[in-house]
């Protein structure tokens, strides 16, 4: 007889080798004093080897009390002196269900994703796992659904985009213990990338040292923002942020030019999206626009100004002018000049003869950089060369015109907040005369001249130089007047067929042309081009002259190439000299006309000569009369006043009308406090005027001139 006795403090069902032997789960609960016993009729219930006794007990108390007892009774008498050996029974008691847990990622950007699980306790007799799942489609969680029974530890689950899923496992051991509940895992399927945006508060080009950026996305599930900067060949991470909402960030930079940025947004599921490139343009350099080189001297009352440099991003261009009489040196007074620029060119009219004009531009670009000239600032890096010559972007102003003894200041940066100021050398012995901390200014050509470190300062390689100077863009002198005539012209007959001409140099002569003609109808021959003599007399000798009439003139040429063909002879302006070398008459007795020696005729002849000069021409006649010595006498006859280039007579043209004044007074305003002028020779438009102006300029077309007389 096999007796199984069991004591528990709760109702339960009991198994032997997987066969139910007793159960009182249908009744009420009971305490531990209640004994459950079962007598088995045969021994076949036991198997050879390991026998397993299992119980499932319902326990509503804090502790489980459990006891089992198995008795075997052999009732047949031992008639054959049989003594059975003691029976050893090994019982495996397993009443505890295993514990397990499911695992998934929190997010998936794929509809198929792995689900895994593990045993949380030290159970080694796991038979398998039931996998249960529930889904959330936006309206709540569904009931749990059994997916399958697995003997492994993972599987692949197929979900849908936008759904969330929960998973749990119920593990079962080999004796039939089944897990009643377990910890679950949750995952969301998100296959849609975010839509990020990147913006800046700076529109267009800016001169700031940075810009505020803002970024964000159309959803709140962004795990990471990455701001990237294009570095010439690849994108480089510049800044990362875990913020999930719009974020304002200061982007500092000292670079100039166009910088390209983009934003990468990655959501929790690993979806990544990138914004279009954002371009930021930084420009902190003033526009390099200046005037094309003006001629040193200009022979017209209007001049064309031509811009040079990069004019693409100009937003405004002001121009100022100053002027002084050519030989006057004083501080300049700058005034605005209103001109209209067309294709980088503008015309300034109303310029006065004998005055020097200065012009300076004040250009401004789209970033707000303005190229100031009072003073101008220029920064550069030196290359360390010996006797370095640096060309300035615009011309430096002479101290006398700027009204300052130091118009050019050069600083050398020696540290982040320190610098050394160099001294300008004003001597003539360059570079030997300079000290080792001096530089020289080439004002005419707009250059800074340095030395070798002993004679003159030598900037080191990559030394940062800061140059501050009073500047202008161009200058010219208006010269409309022809040169003065050759002065005190005299002629000497050195022999029968040679003469010497002498004369003094007028102030504005650059060279002289000595010209001769044997027949005025055939024109003039240039005998010599001569540089002027300033500390004595100019002299020219012409010899081997044949016996005929010869005509001479000394032409003065000035710096503009203007020619003055008249000469000053004994205080009178003449067009040419006449030399009469015709042979003497010897077939008749010679009678000397003593009236030539009489001084009484000379004033009359001079008066006639002056009359000739006043009507447009005159000449001296140098004669050789018969056998007497050559003499020079005044010829008063009008027929000797011939034109320089004889041509057929033309009809007289009417006198030129008087030059129209550039400005007039608008009728009626001369009696009002609101005086107005009218631009008569320019645009014919009106503009406000002042009664005490010495010079006015039309604000519409730029015409310059003196104000009209006010009644």
What coarse outline follows from CA principal-axis ratios? Answer: rod-shaped
The helix fraction, in percent, is under 10%
How many structural domains in the coordinates?
6
Determine the strand fraction and express it as a percent band: 35-45%
Give me the count of strands.
Answer: 59
Distance between the termini: 155 Å
Unreliable spans:
589-651
Please give a handful of descriptors for the protein shown.
mainly beta, Immunoglobulin-like, seven-stranded mixed β-sheet, six-stranded mixed β-sheet, 2 helices, Ig-like_fold
Please provide a written account of the structure.
There is one protein chain. With 711 residues, the chain is mostly beta strands. It folds into 6 domains: 2-93; 100-189, Immunoglobulin-like; 196-282, Sandwich (Immunoglobulin-like); 290-480, no CATH class; 487-584 and 602-640, Sandwich (Immunoglobulin-like), CATH 2.60.40; 663-705, no CATH class. The chain has 2 helices and 59 strands. The strands form 16 sheets. Strands 45, 46, 48, 49, 52, 53 and 54 form a 7-stranded mixed beta sheet that branches. Strands 17, 19, 20, 22, 23 and 24 form a 6-stranded mixed beta sheet that branches. Strand 19 (222-230) and strand 20 form a beta hairpin. Residues 647-658 have a biased composition (Acidic residues). Residues 644-664 are annotated as: Disordered. Keywords: Membrane, Transmembrane, Transmembrane helix.
